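Hi U.,

Before I forget, here's the chain from the pilot set. I'm dumping it here mostly so it's searchable later in email.
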Amino acid sequence: MHRLTLVGVNHKTAPLSLREKISFTEAEINEALLALKRTAAQGEGAYLDECVIVSTCNRTEIVGVTNVDIFSPKVLERLLFDLKGLADTELRPHIYHFTGREAAEHLFRVASGLESMVLGEHQISGQVKRAYNQAVACRMNGTVTNKLFHAAFRVAKQVRTKTRIGCGSTSVSQVACDLISHHVDDLATQNALVIGAGETAAIAARDLAGRGVAHMTITNRSFKRADELAADLDADVAVWENLRDTLTEADIVLCATASPSIVLDQPMMAEVMGRREGRPLYLVDLAVPRDVDDRVALIEGIHLFNIDDLQSAIEDNVERRGAAKHAAFDMIDEALEQFDEWLRTQRVAPAITELRAMAERIRTEEINKLRGLIDDEAFERVDAASRTIMNRILHTPIMSLKKAAMENNIEKLDSLLRSMNQLGA
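Structure:
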């Protein structure tokens, strides 16, 4: 029987200081999935048959499927602790877990942007899709995760196209730009620097450019990626080695790199501010783990904001989209009902496979007795007719099994399975 479990932490349950400790890079996800695959192949302990790891700036979640009869969500919790080297006491108060239908519901809400910091966020659907594709590449997907994630992608698309949940600012990057616009009187007089060239940085850069900043510069460790983004926005590109000089000239800085360690530390920023002749600097850190040492906020003239500081602007966003949110929940409920019915039928899938195999074995044994007694053409007709008869006979018991499973009628299910076992005895 397939057991579906989801564990994780997100921006609602854990502070940024913990979320950055538990985030995974793409390489770390691949390494973890391949290790899990080796464990499954060896059949060691309470292993996972299927697994997808979703890690974004605001959440880290593991979706696992196992056929082990006795499986506790605590196994997945322990996996998360071990993968990131965290103590139980540090993480356990912030972790959540769901099983079965509740796990599917949570994933549908996540993929649709309903669990995002910014309600209706578009980025999350693509991030969930990339996480699933990584599992596919590592061959840690399977029957349940395939069905589950494709259902999540469908309902996310439905929510995005059939409700107004995506109107206005729909990403943390865009909300960050809203925050900057609120604090800066005239963007047309400001020089903006974007540190990073990934998806989050690109969204922020495009939004700032659309708001009419006077000048924009892109910098990134990979000059090629920075150059491509800068060309798309008609912005300048700065080499990474000149970061201090570039910071000195900026009025607004948006950081969104994938660096596992601090990019802007306190000594560097103190030196930069010493060159600026008292000009203030608005610094927004959208990275997880953080790009900016939080002690930078102590330096006079720096106004530092991180992801968790965007909360008040985000709450206004949620209120404006209340009606769309309710419509999205209705769509998710419908998709969830369909997936849940399918998941319940999976408990009888092995029994149905066994029943079909037994019937086919009997049919083949009996039909082969006619070989040599009738010509080939007649044999093919009898063979086809016997297969049709077999399928028609099997239809009723198979549908009864599925119906009992969907209705969670354990008593009837047990009775049907006992009858099948007697039939095969």
